[in-house]
Design a protein that fits this description.
zinc-finger, metal-binding, elongated, DNA-binding transcription factor activity, 3-stranded antiparallel beta sheet, DNA-binding, 7% strand, zinc ion binding, 524 residues
DNA sequence: AGTGCCGGGGT
DNA sequence: ACCCCGGCACT
Protein backbone atom coordinates (compact mmCIF):
# COMPACT_ATOMS: atom_id res chain seq x y z
CA UNK A 1 0.00 0.00 0.00
CA UNK A 2 1.21 3.40 -0.78
CA UNK A 3 1.67 6.12 1.72
CA UNK A 4 -1.54 7.78 2.41
CA UNK A 5 -2.63 10.73 4.33
CA UNK A 6 -6.10 11.55 5.13
CA UNK A 7 -7.10 14.94 6.10
CA UNK A 8 -9.04 15.37 9.24
CA UNK A 9 -11.61 17.96 9.57
CA UNK A 10 -13.66 18.87 12.47
CA UNK A 11 -16.76 20.70 13.06
CA UNK A 12 -15.96 23.84 14.91
CA UNK A 13 -13.25 25.11 12.74
CA UNK A 14 -13.57 26.80 9.43
CA UNK A 15 -12.04 24.53 6.95
CA UNK A 16 -10.15 21.41 7.74
CA UNK A 17 -8.86 20.72 11.10
CA UNK A 18 -5.79 18.75 10.75
CA UNK A 19 -5.41 16.56 13.70
CA UNK A 20 -1.96 15.42 14.31
CA UNK A 21 -0.88 13.63 17.35
CA UNK A 22 0.47 15.61 20.15
CA UNK A 23 3.90 14.64 21.22
CA UNK A 24 3.73 11.65 23.38
CA UNK A 25 0.28 10.90 22.24
CA UNK A 26 0.93 9.19 19.04
CA UNK A 27 -1.57 6.55 18.91
CA UNK A 28 0.21 3.30 18.83
CA UNK A 29 -1.82 0.92 20.80
CA UNK A 30 -0.18 -0.24 23.93
CA UNK A 31 -2.39 -3.24 23.95
CA UNK A 32 -1.51 -4.27 20.47
CA UNK A 33 1.90 -5.47 21.30
CA UNK A 34 3.64 -2.36 20.25
CA UNK A 35 2.35 -2.55 16.76
CA UNK A 36 0.51 0.36 15.58
CA UNK A 37 -2.02 -0.61 13.05
CA UNK A 38 -3.15 2.18 10.91
CA UNK A 39 -6.55 3.26 11.80
CA UNK A 40 -5.68 3.42 15.42
CA UNK A 41 -7.83 5.91 17.02
CA UNK A 42 -6.71 8.43 19.42
CA UNK A 43 -9.08 9.96 21.80
CA UNK A 44 -10.51 12.28 19.29
CA UNK A 45 -10.96 9.35 17.03
CA UNK A 46 -9.18 10.98 14.22
CA UNK A 47 -5.57 10.32 14.17
CA UNK A 48 -3.39 7.44 13.63
CA UNK A 49 0.18 8.28 14.12
CA UNK A 50 2.60 5.47 14.46
CA UNK A 51 6.26 5.59 14.83
CA UNK A 52 9.00 3.16 14.26
CA UNK A 53 12.53 3.12 15.55
CA UNK A 54 13.90 3.95 12.17
CA UNK A 55 11.24 6.21 10.99
CA UNK A 56 8.68 8.44 12.38
CA UNK A 57 5.51 7.73 10.57
CA UNK A 58 2.30 9.54 10.62
CA UNK A 59 -0.98 8.51 9.36
CA UNK A 60 -3.64 11.08 9.49
CA UNK A 61 -7.07 9.79 8.99
CA UNK A 62 -9.89 11.73 7.60
CA UNK A 63 -13.18 11.77 9.16
CA UNK A 64 -15.83 14.16 8.24
CA UNK A 65 -17.23 16.35 10.86
CA UNK A 66 -20.67 14.96 10.43
CA UNK A 67 -19.68 11.44 11.17
CA UNK A 68 -17.62 12.75 14.02
CA UNK A 69 -20.66 14.26 15.52
CA UNK A 70 -22.64 11.19 14.93
CA UNK A 71 -20.03 9.04 16.44
CA UNK A 72 -19.79 11.33 19.35
CA UNK A 73 -23.46 11.15 19.97
CA UNK A 74 -23.54 7.46 19.49
CA UNK A 75 -20.65 6.91 21.77
CA UNK A 76 -22.11 9.07 24.39
CA UNK A 77 -25.05 6.75 24.29
CA UNK A 78 -23.19 3.51 23.98
CA UNK A 79 -20.65 4.27 26.59
CA UNK A 80 -23.39 4.34 29.04
CA UNK A 81 -24.24 0.79 28.08
CA UNK A 82 -20.69 -0.31 28.56
CA UNK A 83 -19.94 -0.67 24.91
CA UNK A 84 -16.37 0.19 24.30
CA UNK A 85 -15.65 -1.68 21.17
CA UNK A 86 -14.27 0.25 18.37
CA UNK A 87 -16.83 1.25 15.88
CA UNK A 88 -14.39 2.44 13.40
CA UNK A 89 -15.02 -0.46 11.13
CA UNK A 90 -18.58 0.52 10.87
CA UNK A 91 -17.65 3.72 9.24
CA UNK A 92 -17.63 3.43 5.52
CA UNK A 93 -14.89 5.94 5.25
CA UNK A 94 -12.66 3.72 7.23
CA UNK A 95 -13.34 0.47 5.67
CA UNK A 96 -10.03 0.44 4.04
CA UNK A 97 -8.24 0.89 7.28
CA UNK A 98 -6.78 -2.25 8.62
CA UNK A 99 -7.71 -3.42 12.00
CA UNK A 100 -6.88 -1.15 14.78
CA UNK A 101 -5.98 -1.99 18.27
CA UNK A 102 -7.28 -5.46 17.72
CA UNK A 103 -10.69 -4.16 18.13
CA UNK A 104 -9.93 -2.72 21.48
CA UNK A 105 -10.43 0.82 22.27
CA UNK A 106 -7.49 2.98 22.84
CA UNK A 107 -6.94 3.45 26.49
CA UNK A 108 -8.66 6.52 27.52
CA UNK A 109 -11.15 6.36 24.78
CA UNK A 110 -14.58 6.56 26.09
CA UNK A 111 -13.33 6.89 29.57
CA UNK A 112 -14.98 9.48 31.66
CA UNK A 113 -13.35 12.79 31.74
CA UNK A 114 -14.13 14.91 34.66
CA UNK A 115 -16.88 12.60 35.61
CA UNK A 116 -18.62 12.55 32.32
CA UNK A 117 -18.17 10.46 29.24
CA UNK A 118 -15.32 11.57 27.26
CA UNK A 119 -16.20 13.88 24.52
CA UNK A 120 -14.66 14.10 21.15
CA UNK A 121 -13.73 17.59 21.84
CA UNK A 122 -11.99 16.79 25.01
CA UNK A 123 -8.38 17.66 24.93
CA UNK A 124 -6.10 14.79 24.36
CA UNK A 125 -3.93 15.18 27.30
CA UNK A 126 -1.94 12.62 29.03
CA UNK A 127 -2.40 13.62 32.54
CA UNK A 128 0.76 12.23 34.00
CA UNK A 129 4.32 12.45 32.78
CA UNK A 130 4.78 8.71 33.14
CA UNK A 131 1.94 8.14 30.78
CA UNK A 132 3.65 10.19 28.22
CA UNK A 133 6.85 8.37 28.79
CA UNK A 134 5.17 5.05 28.42
CA UNK A 135 3.52 6.17 25.31
CA UNK A 136 6.72 7.33 23.80
CA UNK A 137 8.51 4.17 24.74
CA UNK A 138 5.83 2.18 23.13
CA UNK A 139 6.19 4.29 20.11
CA UNK A 140 9.85 3.69 19.97
CA UNK A 141 9.34 -0.02 20.15
CA UNK A 142 6.84 0.06 17.43
CA UNK A 143 8.10 -1.54 14.26
CA UNK A 144 7.41 0.18 11.07
CA UNK A 145 4.06 -0.72 9.81
CA UNK A 146 3.88 -1.18 6.13
CA UNK A 147 0.73 0.46 5.24
CA UNK A 148 -0.80 3.83 4.90
CA UNK A 149 2.00 5.93 6.11
CA UNK A 150 4.03 8.86 5.20
CA UNK A 151 7.55 8.32 6.35
CA UNK A 152 8.98 11.28 8.11
CA UNK A 153 12.68 11.68 8.55
CA UNK A 154 13.74 10.17 11.75
CA UNK A 155 13.77 12.52 14.61
CA UNK A 156 13.47 10.54 17.71
CA UNK A 157 13.66 12.69 20.73
CA UNK A 158 11.67 12.61 23.79
CA UNK A 159 11.67 16.29 24.25
CA UNK A 160 8.46 18.05 23.72
CA UNK A 161 10.00 20.33 21.21
CA UNK A 162 11.02 17.46 19.07
CA UNK A 163 7.54 16.11 19.34
CA UNK A 164 6.13 19.37 18.24
CA UNK A 165 8.51 19.43 15.36
CA UNK A 166 7.31 16.09 14.25
CA UNK A 167 3.78 17.15 14.62
CA UNK A 168 4.48 20.21 12.62
CA UNK A 169 6.17 18.11 10.03
CA UNK A 170 3.16 15.92 9.87
CA UNK A 171 0.90 18.86 9.55
CA UNK A 172 3.03 20.37 6.88
CA UNK A 173 3.12 17.13 5.00
CA UNK A 174 -0.55 16.80 5.35
CA UNK A 175 -1.11 20.27 4.16
CA UNK A 176 1.22 19.90 1.26
CA UNK A 177 -0.25 16.68 0.17
CA UNK A 178 -3.86 17.45 0.64
CA UNK A 179 -4.54 21.09 0.49
CA UNK A 180 -5.04 22.57 -2.91
CA UNK A 181 -4.85 25.93 -1.34
CA UNK A 182 -1.33 25.22 -0.42
CA UNK A 183 -0.49 23.95 -3.80
CA UNK A 184 -2.11 26.54 -5.84
CA UNK A 185 -2.40 29.57 -3.77
CA UNK A 186 0.70 30.04 -1.72
CA UNK A 187 0.16 33.70 -1.01
CA UNK A 188 -3.20 33.03 0.48
CA UNK A 189 -2.86 29.49 1.43
CA UNK A 190 -0.70 27.90 3.96
CA UNK A 191 2.60 27.11 2.52
CA UNK A 192 5.18 25.40 4.53
CA UNK A 193 6.30 28.50 6.26
CA UNK A 194 2.88 29.95 6.77
CA UNK A 195 1.72 26.65 8.08
CA UNK A 196 4.32 26.69 10.72
CA UNK A 197 3.62 30.24 11.55
CA UNK A 198 -0.02 29.66 11.66
CA UNK A 199 0.61 26.66 13.76
CA UNK A 200 2.42 28.71 16.27
CA UNK A 201 0.52 31.88 16.08
CA UNK A 202 -2.91 31.06 14.81
CA UNK A 203 -5.48 32.48 17.12
CA UNK A 204 -7.79 29.54 16.92
CA UNK A 205 -5.06 27.12 17.46
CA UNK A 206 -3.82 25.64 20.62
CA UNK A 207 -0.13 25.27 20.91
CA UNK A 208 -0.61 23.44 24.12
CA UNK A 209 -3.02 20.68 24.68
CA UNK A 210 -4.82 22.11 27.57
CA UNK A 211 -8.25 23.49 27.42
CA UNK A 212 -9.07 26.81 26.04
CA UNK A 213 -12.37 28.44 26.47
CA UNK A 214 -13.20 28.73 22.85
CA UNK A 215 -12.25 25.45 21.36
CA UNK A 216 -12.58 23.37 24.44
CA UNK A 217 -8.93 22.62 24.14
CA UNK A 218 -9.27 20.52 21.12
CA UNK A 219 -5.98 19.61 19.81
CA UNK A 220 -6.66 21.00 16.48
CA UNK A 221 -5.69 23.35 13.84
CA UNK A 222 -7.93 26.03 12.63
CA UNK A 223 -6.96 27.74 9.46
CA UNK A 224 -7.78 31.38 9.19
CA UNK A 225 -11.37 31.92 8.52
CA UNK A 226 -10.85 33.81 5.35
CA UNK A 227 -9.48 30.78 3.70
CA UNK A 228 -11.70 28.73 1.67
CA UNK A 229 -10.62 25.21 1.48
CA UNK A 230 -12.05 23.61 -1.55
CA UNK A 231 -11.22 20.15 -0.43
CA UNK A 232 -13.44 20.27 2.59
CA UNK A 233 -16.99 21.09 1.89
CA UNK A 234 -18.97 22.10 4.85
CA UNK A 235 -21.91 20.07 5.93
CA UNK A 236 -25.11 21.04 4.31
CA UNK A 237 -28.14 22.47 5.91
CA UNK A 238 -30.08 19.30 5.98
CA UNK A 239 -30.67 17.36 9.09
CA UNK A 240 -28.92 14.29 7.90
CA UNK A 241 -25.60 15.88 7.79
CA UNK A 242 -23.58 12.79 7.42
CA UNK A 243 -25.57 11.51 4.55
CA UNK A 244 -25.20 14.72 2.79
CA UNK A 245 -21.56 14.72 3.41
CA UNK A 246 -21.32 11.26 2.05
CA UNK A 247 -23.04 12.34 -1.03
CA UNK A 248 -20.67 15.18 -1.33
CA UNK A 249 -17.82 12.91 -0.61
CA UNK A 250 -18.92 10.52 -3.24
CA UNK A 251 -19.39 13.45 -5.42
CA UNK A 252 -15.81 14.31 -5.00
CA UNK A 253 -14.73 10.79 -5.43
CA UNK A 254 -16.68 10.28 -8.53
CA UNK A 255 -15.40 13.42 -9.99
CA UNK A 256 -11.98 12.49 -8.96
CA UNK A 257 -12.36 9.05 -10.30
CA UNK A 258 -13.54 10.17 -13.63
CA UNK A 259 -10.86 12.73 -13.66
CA UNK A 260 -8.16 10.24 -13.15
CA UNK A 261 -9.70 7.55 -15.14
CA UNK A 262 -9.95 9.64 -18.16
CA UNK A 263 -7.03 11.85 -17.65
CA UNK A 264 -8.84 15.06 -17.99
CA UNK A 265 -7.53 17.99 -16.11
CA UNK A 266 -9.80 19.21 -13.43
CA UNK A 267 -10.33 22.89 -13.54
CA UNK A 268 -9.03 24.12 -10.27
CA UNK A 269 -10.72 27.29 -9.58
CA UNK A 270 -9.77 29.09 -6.48
CA UNK A 271 -12.03 31.38 -4.77
CA UNK A 272 -10.79 33.69 -2.13
CA UNK A 273 -14.00 35.51 -1.61
CA UNK A 274 -15.46 33.14 0.86
CA UNK A 275 -16.54 33.94 4.32
CA UNK A 276 -16.92 31.37 6.98
CA UNK A 277 -20.21 31.43 8.73
CA UNK A 278 -21.48 29.17 11.39
CA UNK A 279 -24.81 27.59 11.10
CA UNK A 280 -26.76 26.09 13.89
CA UNK A 281 -27.72 22.56 13.13
CA UNK A 282 -30.28 22.39 15.85
CA UNK A 283 -33.51 21.17 14.55
CA UNK A 284 -35.66 23.91 13.16
CA UNK A 285 -33.11 26.51 14.00
CA UNK A 286 -30.65 27.08 11.25
CA UNK A 287 -29.36 30.25 12.73
CA UNK A 288 -26.30 31.54 11.02
CA UNK A 289 -23.73 33.51 12.87
CA UNK A 290 -20.42 34.83 11.85
CA UNK A 291 -18.40 33.66 14.78
CA UNK A 292 -17.99 30.30 16.34
CA UNK A 293 -18.06 31.74 19.79
CA UNK A 294 -21.30 33.43 19.05
CA UNK A 295 -22.68 30.25 17.71
CA UNK A 296 -21.53 28.33 20.72
CA UNK A 297 -23.12 30.88 22.91
CA UNK A 298 -26.27 30.69 20.90
CA UNK A 299 -26.45 26.94 21.20
CA UNK A 300 -25.51 27.03 24.82
CA UNK A 301 -28.14 29.51 25.72
CA UNK A 302 -30.92 28.82 23.29
CA UNK A 303 -30.74 25.10 22.81
CA UNK A 304 -28.85 23.75 25.75
CA UNK A 305 -30.47 26.06 28.18
CA UNK A 306 -27.32 27.10 29.87
CA UNK A 307 -26.33 30.37 31.27
CA UNK A 308 -25.23 32.74 28.65
CA UNK A 309 -22.60 34.33 30.75
CA UNK A 310 -21.20 31.02 31.70
CA UNK A 311 -18.19 30.98 29.53
CA UNK A 312 -17.45 27.46 30.44
CA UNK A 313 -17.79 25.29 27.44
CA UNK A 314 -17.53 21.58 27.35
CA UNK A 315 -17.40 21.55 23.61
CA UNK A 316 -20.78 20.05 23.23
CA UNK A 317 -21.85 23.01 21.22
CA UNK A 318 -19.40 21.97 18.61
CA UNK A 319 -21.67 19.20 17.56
CA UNK A 320 -24.62 21.35 16.98
CA UNK A 321 -23.32 23.77 14.51
CA UNK A 322 -21.28 23.66 11.44
CA UNK A 323 -19.28 26.08 9.49
CA UNK A 324 -20.26 27.30 6.12
CA UNK A 325 -18.01 28.57 3.45
CA UNK A 326 -20.14 31.30 2.11
CA UNK A 327 -19.24 32.76 -1.15
CA UNK A 328 -19.19 36.46 -0.70
CA UNK A 329 -20.20 36.89 -4.28
CA UNK A 330 -23.23 34.78 -3.71
CA UNK A 331 -24.15 36.85 -0.72
CA UNK A 332 -25.73 39.21 -3.09
CA UNK A 333 -28.13 36.58 -4.14
CA UNK A 334 -30.29 36.93 -1.15
CA UNK A 335 -31.16 33.60 0.31
CA UNK A 336 -28.51 31.89 -1.65
CA UNK A 337 -26.07 33.31 0.82
CA UNK A 338 -26.99 30.46 3.07
CA UNK A 339 -25.60 28.02 0.61
CA UNK A 340 -23.42 25.90 2.76
CA UNK A 341 -20.89 24.81 0.26
CA UNK A 342 -18.65 27.00 -1.69
CA UNK A 343 -18.72 26.17 -5.35
CA UNK A 344 -15.14 25.13 -5.48
CA UNK A 345 -15.78 22.66 -2.76
CA UNK A 346 -17.14 20.27 -5.23
CA UNK A 347 -14.00 20.31 -7.22
CA UNK A 348 -11.60 18.05 -5.51
CA UNK A 349 -7.92 18.54 -5.58
CA UNK A 350 -6.16 16.18 -7.83
CA UNK A 351 -3.64 14.24 -5.91
CA UNK A 352 -2.23 10.82 -6.36
CA UNK A 353 -3.17 9.94 -2.85
CA UNK A 354 -6.71 10.77 -3.48
CA UNK A 355 -6.57 9.00 -6.72
CA UNK A 356 -5.47 5.90 -5.06
CA UNK A 357 -8.15 6.21 -2.53
CA UNK A 358 -10.68 6.79 -5.16
CA UNK A 359 -9.67 3.74 -7.00
CA UNK A 360 -9.94 1.75 -3.86
CA UNK A 361 -13.05 3.22 -2.54
CA UNK A 362 -16.28 1.77 -3.74
CA UNK A 363 -18.36 4.45 -5.18
CA UNK A 364 -20.97 5.72 -2.85
CA UNK A 365 -24.29 6.25 -4.47
CA UNK A 366 -24.75 9.78 -5.35
CA UNK A 367 -27.88 11.05 -3.84
CA UNK A 368 -27.97 14.73 -3.42
CA UNK A 369 -30.66 15.67 -1.01
CA UNK A 370 -30.49 19.33 -1.41
CA UNK A 371 -29.30 21.53 -4.17
CA UNK A 372 -26.30 22.39 -2.14
CA UNK A 373 -24.15 23.48 -4.95
CA UNK A 374 -24.77 26.79 -6.57
CA UNK A 375 -25.42 26.77 -10.26
CA UNK A 376 -21.93 27.77 -11.07
CA UNK A 377 -20.55 24.83 -9.24
CA UNK A 378 -23.09 22.59 -10.72
CA UNK A 379 -22.16 23.54 -14.16
CA UNK A 380 -18.55 23.16 -13.32
CA UNK A 381 -19.15 19.79 -11.96
CA UNK A 382 -21.14 18.86 -14.94
CA UNK A 383 -18.39 20.10 -17.06
CA UNK A 384 -16.15 17.61 -15.46
CA UNK A 385 -18.62 14.90 -15.99
CA UNK A 386 -19.27 15.88 -19.50
CA UNK A 387 -15.61 16.02 -20.17
CA UNK A 388 -14.64 12.88 -18.55
CA UNK A 389 -17.27 10.28 -18.35
CA UNK A 390 -18.73 10.06 -21.76
CA UNK A 391 -15.58 10.54 -23.74
CA UNK A 392 -14.22 7.17 -23.04
CA UNK A 393 -17.38 5.31 -23.27
CA UNK A 394 -17.10 2.41 -25.57
CA UNK A 395 -20.14 0.53 -26.35
CA UNK A 396 -20.19 -3.15 -26.17
CA UNK A 397 -20.86 -4.43 -29.54
CA UNK A 398 -22.89 -7.52 -29.48
CA UNK A 399 -24.97 -9.24 -31.95
CA UNK A 400 -27.93 -7.82 -30.21
CA UNK A 401 -26.54 -4.43 -29.63
CA UNK A 402 -29.95 -2.96 -29.99
CA UNK A 403 -30.73 -4.42 -26.64
CA UNK A 404 -27.67 -3.17 -24.89
CA UNK A 405 -28.70 0.15 -23.54
CA UNK A 406 -31.58 2.35 -23.01
CA UNK A 407 -31.58 6.01 -23.64
CA UNK A 408 -31.27 7.04 -20.03
CA UNK A 409 -28.08 5.51 -18.83
CA UNK A 410 -25.00 3.78 -19.92
CA UNK A 411 -23.53 0.65 -18.59
CA UNK A 412 -20.16 0.54 -20.02
CA UNK A 413 -17.03 -1.47 -19.90
CA UNK A 414 -14.05 0.65 -20.50
CA UNK A 415 -11.14 -1.45 -21.46
CA UNK A 416 -7.73 -0.12 -21.84
CA UNK A 417 -5.81 -2.27 -24.26
CA UNK A 418 -2.50 -0.74 -23.40
CA UNK A 419 -2.61 -1.44 -19.73
CA UNK A 420 -4.88 -4.36 -19.75
CA UNK A 421 -6.84 -2.60 -17.13
CA UNK A 422 -10.49 -3.23 -17.23
CA UNK A 423 -12.81 -0.86 -15.60
CA UNK A 424 -16.46 -1.30 -15.36
CA UNK A 425 -18.25 1.95 -15.20
CA UNK A 426 -21.82 2.62 -14.79
CA UNK A 427 -22.42 6.14 -15.70
CA UNK A 428 -25.65 7.89 -15.54
CA UNK A 429 -26.08 11.50 -16.31
CA UNK A 430 -26.92 13.59 -13.30
CA UNK A 431 -30.45 14.86 -13.15
CA UNK A 432 -29.50 18.24 -14.39
CA UNK A 433 -27.02 17.05 -16.86
CA UNK A 434 -27.82 18.51 -20.21
CA UNK A 435 -29.43 15.82 -22.20
CA UNK A 436 -28.05 14.78 -25.50
CA UNK A 437 -28.50 17.30 -28.15
CA UNK A 438 -31.35 16.70 -30.44
CA UNK A 439 -30.26 15.60 -33.84
CA UNK A 440 -31.62 18.71 -35.41
CA UNK A 441 -28.85 20.71 -33.86
CA UNK A 442 -26.39 18.93 -35.99
CA UNK A 443 -28.00 19.70 -39.18
CA UNK A 444 -26.58 22.27 -41.41
CA UNK A 445 -28.93 24.94 -42.69
CA UNK A 446 -29.39 22.97 -45.83
CA UNK A 447 -30.68 20.12 -43.80
CA UNK A 448 -27.75 17.85 -44.42
CA UNK A 449 -26.37 16.05 -41.49
CA UNK A 450 -22.96 17.16 -40.46
CA UNK A 451 -20.14 14.66 -40.42
CA UNK A 452 -20.27 14.64 -36.66
CA UNK A 453 -23.63 13.21 -36.48
CA UNK A 454 -24.09 10.92 -33.57
CA UNK A 455 -24.30 7.95 -35.75
CA UNK A 456 -20.92 8.72 -37.18
CA UNK A 457 -19.11 8.69 -33.94
CA UNK A 458 -19.31 5.16 -33.01
CA UNK A 459 -22.02 2.68 -32.84
CA UNK A 460 -25.56 3.64 -32.37
CA UNK A 461 -26.59 4.17 -28.80
CA UNK A 462 -23.46 5.63 -27.27
CA UNK A 463 -23.68 8.43 -29.70
CA UNK A 464 -25.48 10.41 -27.13
CA UNK A 465 -23.08 11.38 -24.40
CA UNK A 466 -20.13 11.62 -26.69
CA UNK A 467 -21.65 14.38 -28.67
CA UNK A 468 -20.64 17.44 -26.71
CA UNK A 469 -17.12 16.26 -26.44
CA UNK A 470 -16.79 15.39 -30.03
CA UNK A 471 -17.93 18.82 -30.90
CA UNK A 472 -15.48 20.31 -28.51
CA UNK A 473 -18.11 21.64 -26.22
CA UNK A 474 -16.42 21.61 -22.90
CA UNK A 475 -19.19 23.51 -21.30
CA UNK A 476 -22.66 22.56 -22.22
CA UNK A 477 -25.12 25.03 -20.89
CA UNK A 478 -27.57 23.41 -18.61
CA UNK A 479 -30.23 25.33 -20.42
CA UNK A 480 -29.78 23.19 -23.44
CA UNK A 481 -33.10 22.17 -24.87
CA UNK A 482 -34.12 18.82 -23.67
CA UNK A 483 -35.00 16.46 -26.44
CA UNK A 484 -38.20 14.62 -26.24
CA UNK A 485 -37.99 11.40 -24.38
CA UNK A 486 -38.56 9.35 -27.44
CA UNK A 487 -36.15 11.09 -29.69
CA UNK A 488 -35.23 8.80 -32.46
CA UNK A 489 -31.75 8.74 -33.60
CA UNK A 490 -31.13 9.95 -37.08
CA UNK A 491 -31.36 7.40 -39.74
CA UNK A 492 -28.14 5.79 -40.68
CA UNK A 493 -26.73 6.36 -44.07
CA UNK A 494 -25.22 2.97 -44.59
CA UNK A 495 -27.07 0.53 -46.68
CA UNK A 496 -29.04 -1.87 -44.69
CA UNK A 497 -29.76 -5.45 -45.19
CA UNK A 498 -33.02 -4.67 -46.82
CA UNK A 499 -31.42 -2.56 -49.47
CA UNK A 500 -28.45 -4.80 -49.91
CA UNK A 501 -30.20 -8.08 -50.13
CA UNK A 502 -33.63 -6.96 -51.02
CA UNK A 503 -36.89 -8.22 -49.76
CA UNK A 504 -36.55 -11.41 -51.70
CA UNK A 505 -33.44 -12.38 -49.80
CA UNK A 506 -34.81 -11.61 -46.47
CA UNK A 507 -33.24 -14.68 -45.07
CA UNK A 508 -29.89 -13.14 -45.67
CA UNK A 509 -30.64 -10.19 -43.51
CA UNK A 510 -29.15 -9.85 -40.19
CA UNK A 511 -31.44 -10.86 -37.43
CA UNK A 512 -31.91 -7.33 -36.32
CA UNK A 513 -33.10 -6.29 -39.70
CA UNK A 514 -35.35 -9.24 -39.83
CA UNK A 515 -36.82 -8.22 -36.59
CA UNK A 516 -37.06 -4.64 -37.64
CA UNK A 517 -34.42 -3.65 -35.27
CA UNK A 518 -31.38 -1.56 -35.83
CA UNK A 519 -29.19 -3.24 -38.34
CA UNK A 520 -26.15 -4.89 -36.88
CA UNK A 521 -24.45 -5.77 -40.05
CA UNK A 522 -24.17 -2.38 -41.59
CA UNK A 523 -23.72 -0.13 -38.74
CA UNK A 524 -23.31 3.49 -39.48
C1' DA B 1 -44.12 5.15 -50.50
C1' DG B 2 -39.99 3.19 -48.87
C1' DT B 3 -36.94 2.60 -45.22
C1' DG B 4 -35.02 2.19 -40.54
C1' DC B 5 -35.97 0.92 -36.17
C1' DC B 6 -38.27 1.77 -31.52
C1' DG B 7 -41.32 -0.13 -28.45
C1' DG B 8 -43.91 -3.69 -27.17
C1' DG B 9 -45.91 -8.22 -27.24
C1' DG B 10 -45.86 -13.29 -27.83
C1' DT B 11 -43.56 -17.67 -27.25
C1' DA C 1 -33.65 -15.14 -25.59
C1' DC C 2 -35.81 -15.25 -29.69
C1' DC C 3 -39.19 -13.72 -32.81
C1' DC C 4 -42.64 -10.72 -34.66
C1' DC C 5 -44.98 -6.52 -35.75
C1' DG C 6 -47.43 -1.88 -35.10
C1' DG C 7 -46.23 2.38 -35.63
C1' DC C 8 -43.40 6.32 -36.05
C1' DA C 9 -39.78 9.27 -38.06
C1' DC C 10 -37.23 10.11 -41.76
C1' DT C 11 -35.98 10.07 -46.72
Amino acid sequence: MEPKVRLVKRSASPGPRICSPPPGLTSCCPDSGGRSPPGTRVGCGLISACKAPGNAVYTVLVEDSASLRRRARRRSCEDGAGSKGSRLQQQPLFQKSPTHCNGKAVPGEGEPVNGRPRHLSDPLVLKRPEEEGVALRLLDQTPLHQSAHIPVPRQRKLSEKAGIDEVIAAVVLTSLSTSPVVLNNPPNGLGTEPTCDAWKEGPAMSSSYSSSSNNSGEWSWDPPSDLSNPSTPSPPLTADVSTSFLSLHSDLEETEASHFLFGDPIPRKRKNSTKVMFKCLWKNCGKVLSSSSGMQKHIRTIHLGRKADLDQSDGEEDFYYTELDVNVDSLTDGLSSLTPVSPTSSVPPAFPILEEEVLQTPAVPLKPEVPMVPPLSQSAHMTILSQSAPTSLCHIQTDHAYQATGPAGLLTDVKSPSTGMEISISWQPPPLFPPPLPPVLFKSPSGCLTPIRPADIGEKRPQVPALPIAKGHALVPSSMPKPAAGTRKPRGEAKKCRKVYGMENRSMWCTACRWKKACQRFVD
